[in-house]
Design goal:
Elements: E1 2-5, E2 14-20, H1 33-59, H2 64-68, E3 79-82, H3 85-92, H4 102-116, E4 122-126, H5 134-137, H6 153-156, E5 158-159, E6 165-167, E7 170-172
Parallel strand pairs: 3-4
Antiparallel strand pairs: 1-2, 2-5, 4-6, 6-7
Helix pairs in contact: 1-4, 3-4
């Protein structure tokens, strides 16, 4: 899920507009929860990077080669949220973790590269109960979205974390 927020809002709290959302079964086989979360994060960040580049192109019409390596100050900031603690630890760690699954190692390396080249500002761990996508992906028995799970966020378009979160490696609450 990709949300557009105001930069003056505090970290991951504030008014938002939903720009993109996808809920589908992965076409790749995941061998663990962390693997599945990494696949979902890769897909989400690919969409976010596309939107980030599109916004830059609207702001400053550039040649296509300049869009491949834009200066970080000109890019809209991407803050990537996840409720998978293992994946978050792998992404913010000082060294690349060694995984028994070579595909997972490649996905984690790609995600870490997004941050090192300043396309992603930071990775944030949030409590599962604060995930806005949960109400849209974990459907009720009748097939309808469970918007009660995320409270008033989908009616007010204001996202407020109710539980403790970890900004990079610092625990916080707002």
């Amino acid at each position: 899920m990709i949300l557009l927020t105001s930069e003056k809002d505090n970290h991951v709290v504030g008014n938002f507009a939903a720009l993109d959302f996808r809920s589908n079964k992965s076409k790749r086989v995941a061998t663990s929860t962390m693997h599945a979360e990494a696949l979902a994060k890769i897909a989400g960040l690919e969409s976010a990077l596309f939107i980030q580049t599109f916004l830059l192109e609207l702001q400053e019409p550039l040649t296509s080669l300049q869009l491949l390596t834009p200066t970080p100050e000109k890019l809209a900031k991407i803050i990537s949220l996840s409720d998978c603690n293992d994946l978050h630890d792998a992404l913010i760690g000082v060294t690349q973790p060694s995984c028994t699954n070579k595909h997972l190692s490649l996905y984690i390396a790609a995600l870490r590269e997004f941050r090192s080249c300043h396309r992603v500002q930071t990775f944030v761990w949030i409590d599962t109960r604060d995930q806005l996508a949960n109400g849209l992906t974990k459907l009720e028995e009748n097939g309808e979205a469970n918007l009660k799970e995320v409270g008033d966020s989908w009616t007010t378009f204001c996202f407020k974390l109710k539980h403790t979160f970890r900004w990079h490696d610092v625990w916080s609450s707002e």
